[in-house]
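DATA CLASS: polypeptide
GOAL: derive structure tokens

***
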Amino acid sequence: MSNWSGLIRQLELVDEDSIDDHVFELYSERQLQNNLGYFDRSKNTISITLPHSQIDLTITQSLTQLSNQSSNSSSTGFICWQSSIFFTDWLLSSSNCPIKLNPELTVLELGSGVAGIVPTILSSKSKHVIATDQKHILKLLKSNIEENTYASMTTTTKSRIDVIEFDWEDVDSGMFNLKSIGVETPDVVIACDTIYNEYLIPYFINSLRNLLGDQSIAFVCVQLRDSITMEKFVTDVVNDEMLILYTVPSSLLNEELRNGYVVYCIVKKII
């Protein structure tokens, strides 16, 4: 964690004594969005421009798969969610953003969805970028990354990009897939809008627990919807024997994230 000590000093610790106050402040001080958080679910092909960094992307979604009720797998990943847009734009363009990426880092996104905005954009900022999701998402995810990667490159340097299956409910298989591409623990784990279902929270936290090494850090961007779900997530992370939870102060977020979102940083406890 020493590599991230400067960042950690700028954050606010969330512990057992501050959970209630933290959640209350989120829902009383940050203007909530009156929407579910998707970018556009009216068509299969959408054009996106990151508000501040002005990077243009063309994303292929699958509205058919989104509305597929016969599948036992999650379908939310088949459309693009605004949290990925705002979080990535904040990383790239905000002078207040305390997160400084460098070309020596290996970055993994949990739950990339088909849009793959985070791995696509960060492929020009990192040594190795890994996009992950459930198996049924991967084909369209890989296609979108390939279509948009070169358009988003700001330098001639091309990092390595991998797309692998990582189902939170089958962490052992996910870790096997990660090791098969030569990675034990990524330096940075990113997750955008993955906290929306109470059932999945323990599996998501277990995935973080397995992915994070002593020098790793996770950034979790969440749209504020149901306060009960949010409180469960915060409580479960705080009570986890292996993890420490911090939150990025509102003053360090851009306007988009201050209005209805929260960004957490999670690291492993040094034992």
